[in-house]
């Protein structure tokens, strides 16, 4: 699994910051959806949904394929997994740092008694 660049992380987290895009990801996680299918689920225009899909595609969070005149989107689980791995590493680092700080502060407290 390749390491995500800082630019790619920015694109992913920016894409995930929007409620509609997170909702779209939930839908395409369950099944591949056409733009028309997605438009029917939201109170917005075809163009607005297409813009959300373009943001998700630029972040590589969805896969797009064309069949005839229709485009279909599905979740790119690999990209989401890589982002989750990055978050997990950050969590582990900070959790370890806070544990070390806690041990240090407890030792300092014991020394003052």
TrEMBL record:
Domain HTH arsR-type: 1-95
SUPFAM superfamilies in UniProt: Winged helix' DNA-binding domain
Domain of life: Bacteria
A family per Pfam: HTH_5
UniProt cross-references to InterPro entries, sorted A to Z: ArsR-like_HTH, HTH_ArsR_DNA-bd_dom, WH-like_DNA-bd_sf, WH_DNA-bd_sf
SMART domains named among the record's database cross-references: HTH_ARSR (SM00418)
Protein name as annotated: Metalloregulator ArsR/SmtB family transcription factor
Native source species: Splendidivirga corallicola
Record lineage: Bacteria, Pseudomonadati, Bacteroidota, Cytophagia, Cytophagales
């Amino acid at each position: 699994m390749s390491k995500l660049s800082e630019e790619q992380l920015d694109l992913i987290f920016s894409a995930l910051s929007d409620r509609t895009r997170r909702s779209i990801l939930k839908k395409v996680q369950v099944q591949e959806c056409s733009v028309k299918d997605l438009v029917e689920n939201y109170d917005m225009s075809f163009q607005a949904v297409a813009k959300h899909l373009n943001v998700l595609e630029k972040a590589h969070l969805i896969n797009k394929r064309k069949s005839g005149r229709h485009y279909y989107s599905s979740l790119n689980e690999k990209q989401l997994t890589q982002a989750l791995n990055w978050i997990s590493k950050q969590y582990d680092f900070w959790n370890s740092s806070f544990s070390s700080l806690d041990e240090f502060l407890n030792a300092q407290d014991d020394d003052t008694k």
